[in-house]
TrEMBL record:
<dbReference type="GO" id="GO:0016874">
    <property type="term" value="F:ligase activity"/>
</dbReference>
<dbReference type="InterPro" id="IPR055399">
    <property type="entry name" value="CC_BshC"/>
</dbReference>
<feature type="domain" description="Bacillithiol biosynthesis BshC N-terminal Rossmann-like">
    <location>
        <begin position="1"/>
        <end position="382"/>
    </location>
</feature>
<protein>
    <recommendedName>
        <fullName>Putative cysteine ligase BshC</fullName>
        <ecNumber>6.-.-.-</ecNumber>
    </recommendedName>
</protein>
<dbReference type="Pfam" id="PF10079">
    <property type="entry name" value="Rossmann-like_BshC"/>
</dbReference>
<keyword id="KW-0436">Ligase</keyword>
<comment type="similarity">
    <text>Belongs to the BshC family.</text>
</comment>
<dbReference type="Pfam" id="PF24850">
    <property type="entry name" value="CC_BshC"/>
</dbReference>
<dbReference type="InterPro" id="IPR011199">
    <property type="entry name" value="Bacillithiol_biosynth_BshC"/>
</dbReference>
<feature type="domain" description="Bacillithiol biosynthesis BshC C-terminal coiled-coil">
    <location>
        <begin position="384"/>
        <end position="539"/>
    </location>
</feature>
<dbReference type="InterPro" id="IPR055398">
    <property type="entry name" value="Rossmann-like_BshC"/>
</dbReference>
<comment type="function">
    <text>Involved in bacillithiol (BSH) biosynthesis. May catalyze the last step of the pathway, the addition of cysteine to glucosamine malate (GlcN-Mal) to generate BSH.</text>
</comment>
Length: 543
């Protein structure tokens, strides 16, 4: 099968340079070359086991979590393999979005699995795929919705109402049965009615019946989709995981000033190369959150204290270390300390990241080194734009490429519609308007010269005549468009399917539309796609 490349611009200049393997970028801001240093990283991980948590304790936590949501034999085997001191991990993560969120989440999971498989073959040692659910984040509005294409065609937003407005970690926000039923009812009315739809909705209802949070529902669905491939799941807000994290929280707190200087150093290096930091730090941020009364609050350092003035929080170093040792569930990482924590927990060969993540990880190299660690290899996740058979036929019918729809849609649509105009409306109305405008202008010049009092009335009348010509022009075009309504609907279906909301498909649409048409394992063909290592975005023809 062919996998044509679709050029999707990356917004982060640093990430572009990394994907292109620019030596100065790879060497300055990252620790390992993504193509050349697999053995080097594997050897370092094996030699630095004392820097990480005990593998058996980690396996116990992973077992308890995955028994709840992802209890397949392949996953149990993956966790067992983690106990092998030579085993490595390929890890990546995302917040747990509603019904898994946008397609890119699935593509990240696919990338993690396939890259782990390739690494295991090349390195001749166990490599386990792990998906990290960022359930400790409190940005509920980033995960409370998803999008599907309706029969209209239109892009429909399905949204879960958040109970209250507390800054609680997403994994701590409890959702009741009525809230789930509301979004499921809306989803059901928006999805295509196929032989697969009833079973799919039944699966969703079964999973939410036993899931109290978005993160739990996400884990249950991801387990059902990817458990057979041995993908291990873990929620960053899991209490068992927090117990393991206690020593690293201590280290982050004890070395906090030096870590701040390390982040400063990396950001100064970025600036010297003309790059802006992707993750914005406030001055004297501790890069750690404290969870109080169920809410997550960022801490800053002031006069030897860890503070959040808005919440009236002020803790000494001794108090913070006591929390880390005895109540680590009250602490939470931010985007710049999470990479350190991830590397403390897992023997990470490589982490799979999206474009924005690759950019902000560049701010962490010196922080890793400050704690005696090394940033792992970074592999850009794979990306896809999926084209169903019916859409492919429409592309052929209208002689369009995917690039035409993504980048030149309005122009190509207007050109097609104009070609349907046997009356040549635009040309004839433009000629008429120009002629009337010229004749009126000549007449008014003569009138004003002889009868100045008519100047204002003449100008008003002139504009009204032109407005009436424009009005008839627009009405004629509307009538013609209505005559070609079926064709225009087909154009719109191409647009909302391939470039919904003016964005890459993978960043907007949910996988459920494809699951309804092709079954829940619709992505199996993507699992067979050759692995690419530079973030190439490919076109996938579904059939």
């Amino acid at each position: 099968m062919k996998w044509p490349i679709l050029s999707i611009p990356v917004q982060q200049p640093l990430t572009v340079q990394y994907m292109e393997r620019e030596p100065s970028v790879v060497e300055t801001f990252y620790e390992y070359h993504p193509d050349l240093d697999w053995e080097k990283r594997a050897d370092w991980v094996e030699r630095s086991g004392q820097l990480r948590v005990n593998r058996t304790r980690l396996a116990d936590v992973l077992t308890r979590y995955n028994e709840r949501f992802n209890n397949s034999q392949a996953v149990r085997d993956s966790i067992e393999r983690l106990k092998d001191e030579r085993s490595l991990v390929v890890v990546g993560g995302q917040q747990g979005g509603l019904f898994t969120g946008p397609l890119l989440v699935l593509y990240k999971a696919i990338s993690i699995i396939r890259m782990a498989q390739e690494a295991e073959i090349k390195l001749a040692r166990p490599v386990v795929p792990v998906f990290w659910i960022a359930g400790e984040d409190h940005d509920f509005d980033e995960v409370d919705h998803t999008y599907v294409v309706t029969s209209d065609p239109a892009v429909q937003r399905i949204r879960m109402e958040k109970p209250g407005d507390r800054r609680a970690p997403v994994s701590h926000v409890k959702l009741d049965a009525a809230a789930w039923e509301s979004v499921l009812t809306e989803l059901e009315s928006s999805l295509p009615k196929t032989e697969f739809t009833p079973g799919l909705l039944e699966h969703l209802r079964e999973s939410v019946a036993t899931c109290a949070t978005l993160s739990d529902s996400f884990a249950a669905t991801m387990g059902r989709l990817f458990g057979e491939y041995g993908l291990v799941l873990i929620d960053s807000a899991d209490d068992g995981l927090r117990e393991l994290e206690a020593p690293m929280f201590e280290a982050i707190l004890q070395h906090n000033d030096r870590l701040e200087k390390a982040y400063d150093t990396s950001e100064q290096q970025l600036a010297s190369y003309g790059y802006s930091p992707q993750a914005i730090r406030s001055e004297h941020s501790a890069n750690v959150f404290l969870v109080r009364d169920g809410e997550r609050h960022l801490l800053h350092k002031e006069n030897g204290q860890f503070v959040n003035h808005r919440q009236g929080i002020s803790c000494t170093m001794e108090q913070m270390l006591d929390i880390a040792r005895n109540s680590p569930q009250e602490l939470s990482n931010n985007v710049l300390t999470r990479p350190l924590m991830q590397d403390y927990l897992f023997p990470v060969l490589a982490t799979v990241l999206g474009p924005g993540e690759i950019a902000y990880w560049a701010q962490t190299k010196q922080a890793f080194r400050e704690l005696g660690m090394r940033m792992p290899i970074i592999w850009p996740r794979m990306g896809f734009t999926c084209i169903e058979g019916t859409l492919n036929k429409l592309l052929d019918k209208y002689e369009l490429s995917v690039e035409d729809v993504v980048y030149h849609y309005e122009a190509r649509r207007a050109s097609w519609l104009q070609a349907q105009d046997a009356l040549h409306l635009d040309e004839r109305f433009e000629t008429l308007r120009a002629e009337v405008d010229t004749r009126y202008t000549e007449l008014l010049e003569d009138l004003v010269a002889s009868l100045p009092a008519l100047g204002k009335l003449g100008a008003t009348n002139h504009n009204k005549v032109l407005e009436q010509i424009d009005f008839l022009h627009h009405r004629a075009k509307d009538a013609m468009a209505k005559q070609h309504e079926s064709g225009l609907r087909q154009w719109e279906r191409l647009h909302v399917s391939l470039h919904p909301l003016g964005k890459p498909q993978e960043r907007v649409l949910n996988m459920l539309g494809y699951a309804c048409r092709y079954g829940e394992n619709w992505f199996a063909m993507l699992m067979e796609a050759p692995v690419v290592w530079r973030g190439e975005h490919r076109i996938a023809l579904l059939s």
